[in-house]
Structures are given as C-alpha cells and as structure tokens.
C-alpha cells in the first residue's frame, strides 16, 4: 500500500516537472523564445482588439445618448407648443361659453403641464453645449409667461378681442418659431452626430487594416527571429514551419526514423487541423454556420473555441436577422404614420392590416380610447383585419371589459397561449376567431393609454415580436395624440374664423353706436355737472340728517351743527328721538315715515326739535330713501329747512 502511494507521488511529481518544462519561459531556449513570442503576439493582438472595440463602442454609446437626448428634447418642445395652443383654445371656449371647467382646465394646463414640460426641456438640454439651442431655450422660457399673462388678462376681462389680439397671436407665432428653431438646431446636432458615426464607420476598415498590418509585421518578425534560432539539425523542418507561419498549408511530410519523427507527426497533425480550420473558415465566411466540419475533434482550447465561435456566430446571425426585421418594421410603420395622418379611421385600418401581415399573424384589431367624457370612457374599435381582408365592424368596450378592457386598466401587454376554442370568442374583441396565441398590447405615451393593439396567430409571438409591437404602439399612440389635437385645433380654427367674421360685421355697427353714445355721454356729463352743483347747493343751504333704518343718526352737516348747536361727534350714533321735542311720538312717527318710504310714497313733515340749549326749533323735513340694487332701503336722508318764526298754514 505504501509502495503504491510512493509510486503515485513519483508519477505526479514527474507530470508536474514535464508540465513545467512545456510552459517554462526561458529566453535562452528555443521553447522559451517561442513561448515568449506567442505571448507577445497574443497580448499585442488583444490590446489592439480591445482598444478598437472600446473606442468604437464608446463612440456608438455617446452618439446614441446624443440622439436620444435630441429626440426627447424635440418631442418635449413640440409638446410645449401644443399645450400652449390648447390653453388658447380653452381660454377661447371659456370666453364663448363662460363655463368654469374651461377656465380651470386653462390654469391646470399651465401649472401641471406646460411649466413642468419646460422644466423637463431645460433638464434635457442642460448638458448640450450648443449656443443656438441654449439661446432659443432661454428665449422660450422668457416668452411663455408673457403669453400666459395676456391670456389671463383676456379671461379676467372677459374679452375675446384681447384673446384674438394681434400681439398675442404674434407671441404664439414667435413661440412656434422658437420651438421650430430648437427642433432645427437639435436635428442639425443629430445630423452632425450621425455624420460622425458614419465617418467612424468608414475609418474602421482603415484602422483594422493598419492594425492587421502592424500585427502581421510584428508576427512575421517574431516568427523569423524564432525560425533563425532553430538548430541546424532541424533545418529540413524549417521550410514547412515557415510556410505555415506565412499562412500557407503545406502537404504532409513523410515520417522519419530519427528523433525528429515526433515533431513531424505533430506537424502533420497540425497541417490536417489547419486544413480543417481553413475549410471551417470558408464555411463561416459564406454564412454556413451549421457546417459539420470538426476541428481538433472539437477538443482542446482551440477546438472548443472554434466550436463555441460557430455557435455564437449562429446566435449573432439570428439576432441580426431579428434586429433587421425590427428596424425595417419601425421604419415601415413610421412612413405609414407620416403619410396617413388625415383620419384616425383610415390610419387605423391601414396600420392593423400592415401590422397583421408584417408580424405573420392571422387577424388583428386596433382600438382607440375615447376619453372626452372622463366619467364614460370608451374603447372603440377603429380597425380590424383578418385573413388578408379588411373588416368593417363596430365594437365598443368599457375599461375592464374583456381582455382589451383589462389591458387598458393594467397598462401592460397580455400574452396568452394554448387558448381554449371558445375563450377568445367570449373574452376578446376578435369575434368568433379561435387563435392559438393571443397578444394584446397597449399603445401609450407617458403612461397614458391612447389605444390597444390585439393580434391573434396560430404561431407563437417571440420576444422580439412583443418588443416590436410595443415600440410601434408608442409611435402610433404619439401620432394619434397629435392627430386628435390637430383635428380639434382645425375645428376650433374654423369656428374662430367664422366668429371673427361675425365680430367684424358687428364692429361696424358698434362703431356707429359708439358715436351716438359719445354724444349722449357728453349731454349726460353736462347734466351731471348741473345736478352736482344743485345737490351741493341744497346740502349747503339745508339741514342734512342721515339715519339708519333703525333710527340711529349716522351723519349730519355743518348746517345741522349751526342750527341745533350739537357737534357731530355728540350726535352720531344716537337715536333720532334725541333731537325731537316730543320723544314719545318720535318712534311712532319714524315707523310711519319708514313704512311710507318703503311703499314708494314721498314724505314731507313739520317736526319740532330741541336745540342743545333747550330751545325749541321747528323744521320742515323732506324724507327720501337711499336704496340698494335689490330695492331694500339702506339709509334715509332728511333735508330740513328752519321754520321757526315763520307762519305756516
């Protein structure tokens, strides 16, 4: 037992020494030089490859980020312009209908939509080092409050003329100019970025060629140096090795009986495998990734690496195919959205038919959300397509009704497989069809659901299909949103033009009336001046007593103070009976006077009053009411003339 263990330890030590000799790095030996040479070549190649890959990847990532920021900024600028147009529409509707909902919507759009959108645009363009974009963005931020101030003034004054004022229209047109300028500057920046990417793509072959030349030169120099170091006794093998180092595959060599035979066998095995690598490379170059050629019997590092490379290339080719399908589809539907934007119904029919065919589905439906009444949201079928035929059917669902309604509430796609025969007919919006696979995907913009896409197929939907439907759904939702706003704006503009014509006709009539009113106003001002002078003369010549409806004195004039001897601060707030001679009759008399005045009967009366010094004074009093707009008496004024010493019949 001990002997066996000792023997195993000896074998293990021998294998370690043998392995050490194979990988020993010693520049004094041929084996060491070859090892060092290959290590340097490998390291140099890896460095060049990693450097090129990192540089290209960095350029692509930076370009993608720039393009993403530019597109988001452009979309946000357009959104601000649309929201400002919407506030003008809401202000117009409020002034024409006087409904508070439009006024509330106007304020809400500014506070919860426009200003946050301006903040988002500022955040998106904050890191953009473009002087034109910065200037236009700052001008836009300074210009918006001016528009809101004018709109708010028009609402506060209830004036359509202020809302249609040329200054406000010019400000909105200027806002459109600023938005278009920002978008143009962003698009110019995006074009510059794309041009830089294309230039980088054109430089890649040059860089790779240079790197290949450098690597080839270095490899050749190292190979020549190693070959020159080979001993003379293996000179007859050197020619074959040189051919291999230059990229040629020589014929197999005949075996020998000397100590070189092991090297010849190894070289012959290498030649066979190199031919296999050549054939393998030819097949891979032609795209035949399913080739059955085996290199090194798919064993060892190189054999396993080549087999793994073939598998990875197969996966890459499949991914490229899916990516190409995805990008072509996005471009295709982008063209459809740009060229069919006059009618939601026509656009929906065109989209669903193309979508069914492109995704290799069998039938499909496109629903659009109608949320004009927030209390009665409807999901309306706008387009249906099945078996290469356009379907013209009507269907309307409520949120939560069936799978389509459920998708609207959950805001996420629904994918079903192995569906029972009657499940779709009961739960889905596709009628009596019984597909095997069902995909229902929401069309949303900023988490707002604008529609639902429903596709049915006898083939499964893969991940790239679902991702594609989701991306196209976003583009469709954005277009539908813009189309709805455009159609509504167009309708309001037509209505506004019609009202403008009516206002223009009324303006001439109002001008004529204004001339008549001006003449009337001059006459009224003259009469008013005369009446004012008369009232002043009366108040200066007569005794004035102003009383509340409860009989308390609220105001007297200087004539009162002079006639009765009381100062105003002594009499104000006291009951009128305070100055009457017969205070017991004062209350009954005042109630009678108040009743007559409320009935519209004028009252004139001779009253006996008592001065401050106790003397009696007789006054002729004329009572008249001061009424509110409702007709209720608010105060009573009494103009009195002194009768003491005069004989009155």
TrEMBL record:
Q: What is this protein called?
A: PAS domain-containing protein
Q: Which organism is it from?
A: Marivirga lumbricoides
Keyword annotations of the record? Coiled coil, Membrane, Transmembrane, Transmembrane helix
Membrane-crossing residues? 34-56, 206-227
Gene3D superfamilies from the xrefs? 3.30.450.40, 6.10.340.10, PAS domain
Coiled coil where? 493-537
Q: Does the keyword Transmembrane helix apply?
A: yes
Recorded superkingdom: Bacteria
């Amino acid at each position: 037992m001990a002997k066996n263990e000792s023997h195993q330890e000896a074998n293990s030590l021998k294998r370690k020494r043998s392995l050490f000799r194979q990988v020993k790095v010693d520049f004094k030996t041929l084996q060491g030089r070859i090892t060092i040479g290959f290590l340097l070549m490998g390291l140099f190649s890896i460095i060049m490859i990693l450097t090129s890959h990192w540089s290209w990847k960095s350029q692509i990532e930076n370009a993608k980020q720039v393009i993403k920021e530019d597109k988001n900024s452009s979309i946000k600028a357009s959104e601000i312009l649309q929201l400002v147009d919407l506030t003008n529409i809401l202000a117009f509707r409020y002034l024409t209908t006087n409904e508070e909902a439009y006024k509330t919507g106007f304020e809400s759009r500014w506070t919860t939509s426009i200003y946050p959108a301006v903040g988002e645009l500022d955040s998106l363009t904050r890191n953009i080092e473009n002087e034109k974009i910065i200037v236009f963005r700052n001008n836009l931020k300074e210009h918006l409050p001016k528009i809101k101030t004018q709109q708010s003034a028009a609402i506060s004054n209830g004036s359509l003329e202020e809302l249609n004022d040329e200054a406000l229209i010019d400000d909105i047109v200027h806002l459109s100019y600023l938005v278009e300028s920002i978008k143009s500057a962003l698009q110019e920046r995006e074009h510059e970025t794309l041009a830089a990417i294309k230039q980088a793509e054109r430089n890649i072959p040059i860089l790779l060629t240079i790197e290949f030349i450098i690597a080839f030169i270095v490899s050749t120099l190292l190979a020549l140096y190693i070959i020159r170091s080979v001993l003379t006794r293996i000179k007859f093998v050197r020619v074959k090795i040189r051919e291999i180092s230059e990229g040629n595959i020589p014929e197999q060599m005949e075996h020998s009986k000397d100590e070189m035979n092991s090297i010849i066998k190894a070289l012959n095995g290498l030649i066979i495998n190199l031919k296999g690598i050549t054939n393998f490379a030819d097949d891979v170059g032609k795209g035949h990734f399913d080739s059955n050629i085996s290199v090194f019997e798919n064993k060892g590092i190189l054999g396993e690496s080549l087999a793994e490379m073939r598998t990875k290339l197969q996966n890459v080719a499949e991914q490229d195919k899916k990516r190409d399908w995805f990008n072509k589809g996005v471009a295709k539907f982008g063209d459809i959205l740009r060229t069919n934007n006059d009618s939601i119904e026509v656009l929906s029919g065109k989209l669903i038919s193309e979508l069914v065919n492109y995704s290799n589905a069998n039938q499909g439906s496109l629903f659009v959300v109608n949320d004009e009444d927030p209390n009665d949201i409807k999901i309306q079928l706008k387009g249906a397509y099945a078996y290469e035929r356009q379907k013209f059917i009507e269907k309307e669902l409520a949120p939560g009704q069936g799978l389509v309604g459920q998708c609207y509430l959950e805001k996420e796609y629904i994918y079903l497989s192995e569906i029972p025969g009657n499940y779709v007919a009961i739960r889905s919006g596709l009628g009596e069809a019984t597909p095997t696979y069902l995909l229902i995907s929401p069309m949303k913009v900023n988490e707002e659901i604008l529609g639902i896409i429903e596709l049915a197929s006898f083939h499964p939907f893969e991940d790239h299909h679902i991702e594609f439907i989701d991306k196209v759904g976003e583009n469709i939702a954005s277009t539908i949103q813009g189309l709805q706003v455009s159609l509504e704006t167009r309708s309001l503009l037509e209505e506004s033009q019609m009202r403008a014509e009516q206002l223009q006709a009324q303006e001439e009539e109002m001008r004529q009336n204004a001339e008549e009113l001006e003449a009337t106003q001059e006459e009224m001002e003259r009469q008013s001046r005369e009446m004012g002078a008369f009232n002043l003369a009366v108040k200066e010549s007569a005794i004035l007593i102003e009383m509340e409806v409860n009989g308390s004195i609220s105001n007297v004039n200087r004539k009162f103070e002079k006639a009765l001897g009381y100062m105003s601060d002594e009499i104000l707030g006291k009951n009128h009976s305070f100055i009457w001679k017969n205070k017991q009759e004062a209350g009954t008399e005042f109630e009678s006077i108040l009743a007559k005045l409320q009935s519209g009967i004028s009252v004139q009366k001779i009253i006996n009053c008592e001065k401050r010094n106790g003397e009696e004074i007789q006054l002729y009093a004329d009572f008249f009411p001061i009424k509110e707009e409702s007709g209720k008496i608010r105060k009573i004024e009494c103009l009195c003339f002194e009768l003491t010493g005069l004989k009155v019949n």
